[in-house]
């Protein structure tokens, strides 16, 4: 059975090239040719989309791309969609697309991006496109949500973020899949599918990043500019300075949802040394026994804190050292992709973001 893949080409860095001294932008068909033959048993339908560079996309542009992906799966009958995208805002577009498709994602959606131009000797676009097409053709990735091609890895759109000037990562979450010797290997569990969006994301939402000494000026300016909702990205684990609480209360009275936060993950890791081998536990007279009773274990290495053994012999360091790992998760349906996401706070149906962006408008 032939797998029908829709490739939506938006240009940007991976399509930028030079012919002599003349800069050109490769079409989707030309870009596909650089990736070599498509995976066996696939039929690739290439269509070019006219959008601006990814660093200049607004929420309306991202919403248009997300709707085009959705139409390719639900209306045009394709089995998978590959969307080429610039790296600057690929995580935001991927997350918005994932929200818009939920929970009725019938096929595979992969976003491919590159950091080097097509004419450069070490261009990474061909490899990224091959990985994306291979993943799109793999039926095992159906219903896994939107994925982003990141140097052979395929992290989930909900977790992927820019880890540097040229890198994408989903740490501490493992990628959902990975290209291994020309084949897709599933290495992680995809996040739960978000609920379907309700209504149209056509409202203005202001995102304000908090900092020490911030006052209500930015909140007031956002309201005066017509913001229908305000997301505050708090400091630390989501703390909002006291100076903003009065403005938040006033926004609530005026019917403008305002709030924010950045809570830690649901499960805090226990950091310490791994459990000692069974033989060592017996030698030190601390063989674990069933039940809630605990027994003092051997001292830590180099005079460190002593261990205590719990049920099943699992060792933890006392006192426990706790910390947040991996940053916030993403819950709920966002109003504007990751323009208002990233934390767990829900404001007007959206969540907070790690980026300070101005008030943006999504046109329905």
Structure description:
α2 (59-74) crosses α3 (90-101). The protein folds into 3 domains: 3-186, 3-Layer(aba) Sandwich (Rossmann fold), CATH 3.40.50.1170; 198-268 and 327-364, Rossmann fold (3-Layer(aba) Sandwich); 270-322, no CATH class. Strands 4-1-5-6-7 form a 5-stranded parallel sheet, with helices on both faces. It has 364 residues and is an alpha/beta fold. α3 (90-101) links the parallel β5 and β6 (108-112). The protein has helices at residues 28-34, 59-74, 90-101, 125-137, 217-224, 245-253, 278-283, and strands spanning 3-9, 16-19, 22-25, 42-48, 80-84, 108-112, 146-148, 153-154, 161-162, 168-169, 177-180, 183-186, 205-209, 229-233, 258-260, 270-271, 295-296, 307-309, 315-317, 321-322. Mean pLDDT is 76; it is low at 263-276 and 286-364. It is built from 7 helices and 20 strands. It is globular, with a radius of gyration of 24 Å. InterPro entries: Asp/glu_Ase-like_sf, Asparaginase/glutaminase-like, Asparaginase_C, L-asparaginase_C, L-asparaginase_N, L-asparaginase_N_sf. Residues 204-257 form the Asparaginase/glutaminase C-terminal domain. It comes from Micromonospora yangpuensis.
What topology does this entry show?
Layout: E1 3-9, E2 16-19, E3 22-25, H1 28-34, E4 42-48, H2 59-74, E5 80-84, H3 90-101, E6 108-112, H4 125-137, E7 146-148, E8 153-154, E9 161-162, E10 168-169, E11 177-180, E12 183-186, E13 205-209, H5 217-224, E14 229-233, H6 245-253, E15 258-260, E16 270-271, H7 278-283, E17 295-296, E18 307-309, E19 315-317, E20 321-322
Parallel strand pairs: 1-4, 1-5, 5-6, 6-7, 13-14, 14-15
Antiparallel strand pairs: 2-3, 8-11, 9-10, 11-12, 16-20, 17-18, 18-19
Helix pairs in contact: 2-3
Pfam families: Asparaginase (PF00710), Asparaginase_C (PF17763)
Biased composition (Basic residues): 264-287
Region (Disordered): 256-314, 341-364
């Amino acid at each position: 059975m032939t797998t029908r893949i829709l490739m939506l080409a938006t240009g940007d860095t991976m399509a930028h090239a030079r012919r002599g001294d003349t800069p050109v932008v490769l079409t989707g068909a030309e870009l596909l040719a650089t990736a070599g033959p498509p995976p066996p048993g696939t039929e690739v339908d290439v269509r070019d989309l006219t959008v601006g560079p990814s660093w200049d996309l607004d929420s309306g542009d991202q919403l248009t791309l997300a709707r085009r992906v959705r139409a390719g799966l639900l209306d045009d009958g394709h089995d998978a969609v590959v969307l080429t995208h610039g790296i600057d805002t690929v995580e935001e577009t991927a997350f918005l697309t994932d929200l818009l498709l939920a929970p009725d994602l019938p096929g595979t959606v992969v976003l491919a991006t590159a950091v080097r131009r097509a004419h450069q000797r070490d261009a990474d676009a061909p490899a990224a496109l091959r990985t994306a097409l291979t993943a799109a053709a793999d039926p095992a990735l159906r219903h896994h949500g939107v994925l982003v091609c990141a140097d052979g890895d395929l992290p989930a759109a909900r977790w992927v973020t820019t880890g540097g000037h040229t890198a994408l990562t989903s740490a501490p979450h493992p990628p959902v899949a990975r290209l291994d010797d020309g084949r897709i290997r599933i290495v992680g569990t995809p996040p739960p599918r978000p609920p379907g969006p309700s209504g149209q994301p056509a409202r203005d939402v202001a995102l304000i990043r908090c900092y020490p000494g911030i006052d209500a000026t930015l909140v007031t300016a956002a309201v005066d500019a017509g913001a229908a909702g305000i997301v505050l990205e708090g400091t630390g684990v989501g703390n909002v300075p006291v100076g903003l609480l009065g403005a938040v209360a006033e926004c609530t009275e005026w019917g403008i949802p305002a709030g924010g936060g950045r809570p830690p993950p649901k499960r805090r890791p226990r950091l310490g040394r791994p459990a000692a081998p069974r033989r060592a536990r017996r030698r030190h007279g601390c063989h674990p026994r069933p039940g809630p009773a605990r027994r003092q274990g051997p001292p830590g290495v180099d005079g460190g804190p002593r261990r205590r053994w719990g049920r099943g012999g699992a060792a933890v360091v006392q006192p426990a050292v706790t910390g947040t790992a991996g940053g916030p998760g993403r819950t709920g349906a966002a109003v504007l992709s990751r323009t208002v996401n990233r934390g767990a706070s829900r404001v007007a149906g959206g969540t907070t973001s790690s980026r300070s962006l101005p008030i943006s408008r999504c046109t329905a």
